[in-house]
From TrEMBL:
Protein name per Swiss-Prot or TrEMBL: DUF4410 domain-containing protein
Signal sequence residues: 1-19
Signal is among the record's keywords: yes
Organism field: Pedobacter agri
The entry's keywords: Signal
Length: 214
């Protein structure tokens, strides 16, 4: 009986801590936000800068495979963001450039793998858009997926967190390159979380603050 009570207390404490972590968010709006975005018609979504780290590096860690995984996740989050916004396009005041077109234009301009070396107005000019949405996703894996799956089976989904991290989303004006809006959200990385689920979860928090919402 005592062991059961102790287990319930530990699980409850963990859930409370995760909820508090998930609620951590920050929103920045430029004083000129409404004035600037009123001129925007087309917005491009850039590949998200993605960083995956480990609290304890896996024994079978492969650097090349790790780098490829970060690149794949970068464009996966970009695609998920585009899909989400496209699905709800009637709710927004602008159109969003197809991400395949965005990446082709970035590649032709020699920017795709060097986005951090160019200003946002330079990127917007190359893409022919009025603004760009960029982002950063950072995650630290704290436990194995196998361990998380076992926990999920035992507790019906409670405590199946495999890591933690943060997701940042930024809107820059294409003419000046100035940041007009920034959203930061702490995220929990569950074993069954896809990039679509990640973006859906974040955009539910963003919806009331997203600058292009009607």
């Amino acid at each position: 009986m005592k062991k059961t009570l102790l287990l319930l207390v530990l699980v409850s404490t963990n859930l409370i801590a995760l909820a508090q972590y998930e609620n951590a968010k920050q929103v920045f709006e430029s004083p000129k936000l409404k004035e600037v975005i009123a001129t925007h018609k087309t917005v491009a979504i850039l590949p998200f800068n993605t960083k995956i780290s480990f609290k304890k590096q896996p024994k079978d860690f492969n650097l090349d495979a790790h780098i490829q995984k970060e690149k794949t996740m970068s464009t996966s989050i970009q695609s998920s963001m585009y899909t989400f916004l496209l699905r709800k396009s009637s709710n927004y005041t602008v159109e969003f450039q197809d991400v395949e077109k965005t990446n082709i234009l970035l590649k032709k301009a020699g920017l795709l793998d060097k986005l951090d070396e160019f200003t946002k107005d330079e990127v917007a000019k190359a893409l022919g858009v009025d603004a760009v949405i960029s982002g950063k996703f950072e995650t630290e894996q704290t436990r194995s997926e196998a361990g998380a799956i076992v926990t999920t089976v035992l507790f019906g989904g409670l405590g199946s967190k495999t890591g933690s991290g943060s997701l940042t989303m930024v809107v820059n004006d294409g003419k000046t390159g100035d940041m007009q809006w920034r959203f930061f959200k702490a995220m929990n990385d569950g074993v069954f979380t896809s990039s679509d689920e990640l973006i859906d979860r974040m955009m539910r928090k963003v919806s009331r603050n997203f600058p292009y919402s009607k």
